[in-house]
């Protein structure tokens, strides 16, 4: 099993938060780090070589500074500067990684959605779990929130979240959300109480079955089960406001995986509530 954590590093301030998160995890788990910077935009224009080489040198200097901090923690770390499409290069690299860590410049409510499509495409196309670190402080938070919908991919997300919660000694907060059948936007809809109660009960049963198998692997893990009516991304992010980690699954695969995430995971990433892992 590959134990390398790859960190995509840019010149943005949030890159330091992403590297710090990866350093903490590597120090706790004994994993090695590989810090990547990708110089993009080269098209082979005459005179471009000198510009690219200067960018490569600046990127290497940036990586060396981060790598020094990792070595001070006793972590095995290497660096790599590449040239090309950053999304494509990191997706290819993820095939040989246990985890891909990237930063997002989202700074919380009021800052608008996370900018740029690179993070969304990386999370959708990566061959390993992707951890997205927002550009705000999350120290002092507790608990690991995971979205569960009964699908095979949410089972993978649940297992990942349980392993993380067990590793850090935190409570696992398993969240399932049900949404009534949509009606025309302007219609005054009153749902039958039996329908609503049945939806709640069915979702509670699904969640109970999903988490039941965790006890054999993590007998001491505290698991809180939450079932709410609403829209999944809104409920997950609301619950994740005070959590140290949120975990969601993605169904993205195939050629379109480099461009698309499932709507819920994409919306969770667009307004990050905490450090968030996307698991296939």
Automatic annotation (TrEMBL):
A Pfam family recorded for this sequence: Usp
Presence of keyword ATP-binding: yes
UniProt keyword list: ATP-binding, Nucleotide-binding
Nucleotide-binding keyword on record: yes
Coiled coil: none
A GO term for molecular function: ATP binding
All residue ranges annotated as the UspA domain in the record: 1-134, 144-280
Domain of life: Bacteria
PANTHER family linked to this entry: STRESS RESPONSE PROTEIN NHAX, UNIVERSAL STRESS PROTEIN RV2623
Similarity comment text for this entry: Belongs to the universal stress protein A family.
Protein name per its UniProtKB record: Universal stress protein UspA
């Amino acid at each position: 099993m590959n134990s390398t954590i790859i960190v995509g590093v840019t010149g943005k301030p949030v890159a330091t938060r992403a590297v710090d998160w990866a350093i903490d995890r590597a120090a706790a788990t004994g994993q090695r780090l590989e810090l990547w910077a990708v110089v993009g935009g080269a098209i082979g224009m005459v005179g471009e070589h000198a510009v690219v080489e200067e960018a490569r040198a600046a990127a290497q200097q940036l990586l060396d500074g981060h790598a020094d901090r990792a070595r001070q923690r006793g972590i095995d770390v290497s660096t790599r500067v590449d040239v090309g499409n950053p999304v494509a290069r990191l997706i290819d690299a993820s095939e040989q990684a246990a985890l891909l860590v990237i930063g997002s410049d989202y700074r919380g409510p009021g800052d608008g959605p996370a900018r740029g499509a690179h993070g969304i495409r990386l999370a959708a196309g990566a061959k390993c779990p992707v951890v997205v670190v927002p550009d705000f402080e999350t120290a002092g938070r507790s608990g690991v929130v995971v979205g569960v919908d009964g699908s095979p991919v949410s089972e993978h997300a649940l297992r990942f979240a349980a392993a993380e919660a067990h590793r850090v000694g935190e409570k696992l907060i398993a969240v399932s959300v049900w949404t009534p059948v949509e009606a025309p936007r302007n219609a005054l809809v009153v749902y039958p109480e039996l329908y609503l109660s049945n939806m709640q009960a069915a979702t509670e049963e699904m969640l109970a079955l999903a988490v039941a198998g965790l006890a054999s692997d993590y007998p001491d893990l505290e698991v809180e089960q939450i079932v709410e009516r609403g829209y999944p991304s809104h409920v997950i992010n609301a619950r994740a406001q005070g959590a140290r980690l949120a975990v969601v699954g993605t169904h993205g695969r195939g050629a379109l995986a480099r461009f698309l995430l499932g709507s819920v995971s994409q919306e969770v990433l667009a307004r990050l509530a905490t450090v968030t892992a996307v698991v296939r």
